[in-house]
Amino acid sequence: MSKLSDNFGKTFIVTGEVAPPRGPDLTEYMHEVDEFKDMKDKLYGVNVVDIPGAMLLMSSLAGSIILQQNGIEPIYQLVCRDRNQLALESDLIAASAFGIENVLALTGDHPACKASDHPSAKGVFDLDSATLIETMKVMNEGKDFAGGDLNKPTNFFIGAALAPGATPIDGEIYKTKRKLTAGADFFQTQAVFESSLMGDCINKYESLIGEDIRDKVLMGLVPLYSYGMVKFLRTMPGIVISEETGQRIKNAEDPVEEGINIAAELIDNARDMDLAGVHIMPAGKIEALVRLLENL
Amino acid sequence: MITLKLKNIEDLKTKTGKKNLLIACGLCPYWNFSKEDIDKLGESLNSGFMKLPMLCNYPEIKVDSDEYDRIFVLACGAGSQVVSDVLDKEIIPVADTTGIGVKSDGKIRNYCSACGDCIIDETSGICPIMRCSKSLLNGPCGGVQDGKCEVGDIDCGWIQIGERMTKSGGKDLFMSVRRPRLIK
């Protein structure tokens, strides 16, 4: 059992996130790994991102193995954009062989999305998030996606994404139920800057599906550092930053400090909403994560 | 009809020779482009021009291809190959085939990719392979904003599928997991 799966639903979960390097020099990555070692008592897992926004990075599997070998529990992010069924299953077998249990199943951003640095790359999408979740579920039963046998069952704790900012939201709600049916154990949301957006999403799920999902949801948080960051994030799909939140950063004497204050308030909001926990994406500023953890 | 997108004209000009011929299929290109635009294309390529009926019927092509050092073809991918087959000569396509489409309100939209595995009975009569940029069998993805795809200004096919399906009581079908199938 992973620490994350063991504690999920029993305590307020906090997870972090790290990006593998954009090249073979691991020096900076290992510095971050050292910082995570100091935080590991307060964190239940650290996400390792898989080429987000189709911007090249070292593989998330290698990044996850490094965390695992340094005593930090990884949440291995795996996207369907770059691999067919065989490659996904092969990487999952490798992950399991190295003791990785937490996996976040993602469809992946399109290679031609706005952020991409490889717009001519071919998008594979042989599977998608729902069928990748199903794949992990059958692998946990000792089978592969095509029905063949594995020499031992895997032990994946299966995560999936939830986008509270998708509009219209109904499709996202039905898809979330689909992922749950497929075998998802928990959900991580895209970055949320307004707790009302999260609340509306949870309530919509309840009204459309007739179930309460909050004990399976980690709310995604990104501490804001500058008004430039606010402006940039507002151009991203699904990101909602209110005028009031934007002004707080714009008018702050110390925008980094104000961003940490806003994130701390959102953590309180997540507790008030009885969510399973929060997923903090420090976007390269690991000290913000350190500060937020100090106050927990 | 087959939908076509003209290649970059400046790139095509670099491929012209001393004596050029443009052969156009009389069907789909004239549905995609105006006659004026097709005439202009011939002028830009400094080429002679020949319009043939449906190239997919393998028409006879009465031309001495040795007279020309470059033969351009305005047709779908199949029609362009027919010209090459009939003349037994290399050709240069001037358009890319992008799918099978419809025209409404003066706009051409791709509806079918000829994937060989039609599943629209499971997706409210809307093709997710062509009308979702990721060709997802289990959409929509999280990138949808105001019903538009994260890639370009196109309507999200999965939002349309969801709306039509839930309207007719197919919520459970929408929430089911569709697996990729072996195309025989």
Q: What pair of chains forms the biggest interface? A: A-B, 35 and 30 residues
> What spatial order of strands do you see in the largest sheet of chain B?
3-2-4-5
Note the overall shape of chain B.
elongated
What is the straight-line distance between the termini of chain B? Answer: 25 Å
3D structure, described in words:
The complex is a heterodimer of chains A (296) and B (184). Chain A is an alpha/beta fold and 296 residues long. Chain A has a single domain (3-294), classed as TIM Barrel (Alpha-Beta Barrel). In chain A, 42% of the residues lie in helices and 14% in strands. An 8-stranded parallel beta barrel of chain A has the order 1-2-3-4-5-6-7-8, surrounded by 5 helices. The two termini of chain A are 24 Å apart. In chain A, 48% of the residues are buried. Chain B is built from 7 helices and 7 strands. The longest helix of chain B is centred in the middle third of the chain and has 11 residues, at 77-87. Chain B is elongated. The model of chain B has no long low-confidence stretch (mean pLDDT 94). Chain B is an alpha/beta fold and 184 residues long. Chain B folds into 2 domains: 2-98, Rossmann fold (3-Layer(aba) Sandwich); 113-175, no CATH class. The chains are: A alpha/beta (296), B alpha/beta (184). Chain A binds chain B through residues 81, 85, 107, 109-110, 112-114, 123, 125-131, 134, 161-163, 166-168, 170-172, 174-175, 177-178, 181-182, 190, 237-238, and chain B through 133-147, 150-151, 156, 158-159, 162, 166, 171, 174-180.
